[in-house]
Specification:
single chain; mainly alpha; about 0% strand; elongated
Amino acid sequence: MTRLEEQIRIWREQEHLPVVRETQIQHTVERAKQAFYERERAQPCTYLSFVLLQARFMRKSWWVAQLAVLAALWFGLYTMQDADFLRRGSGVLISTFVILMVPELWKNVRTQSTEVESASYFTLRQVYAARLTVFATVDLLLLSLFLAVTTMTVSLTLWDILIQFVIPFHVTCCICLRVLCSRLCSEYFAVALSLFWSAVWMWIVMNETIYTMISKPIWIALLVISAVYLVYAVRRVLQSANQSWEGNLIWN
């Protein structure tokens, strides 16, 4: 027995304090957890309510910025419809559209709030699922509005939209989500990789020799692969949400 433990024992005997056993502590913890669950079950929260609650904590300014990016992209397409090179390069702005999601997705990591979220009734995986659902819904509405206005005002075919916008959008999403669930979980690293990908994409579409060498089957393959990998990246985020040290489950 160390000197400190001996002093604590003597102090406890002098103060006539009861001896707390480990089994009693564990029993109290289990009863507290059971009481917590019973309280939560008495006030059920549907998944829709939970998603809307998460949406309230998300900054709406990022969506305004995304709308501004799409507005700038439409304006560029509308004013330079006859310039093929510039229209190809304008697709790089779609990467910026995705990058604007990074600060909100990394908010709990940046503020070191994952331990608090893990102590809640809902798991960290459910929190991420709700946030991704909110982002997907809002971005789907924004992109649908953009595509509707673009197809009505700009002479742009569906094939051009898939190649020039959907592929870079998928790849940028994959980069951000994979970095989010990796050990190098840094928002700056995700932004740096996204910007690097934007530079690579710009080099491809602006280089006429390389652009014309890529056949239609290759574009289709890239589109399918990027879409499949995006689904995989989302699953990885949800699976790894509770595997980090800060994200260890407490109640669940």
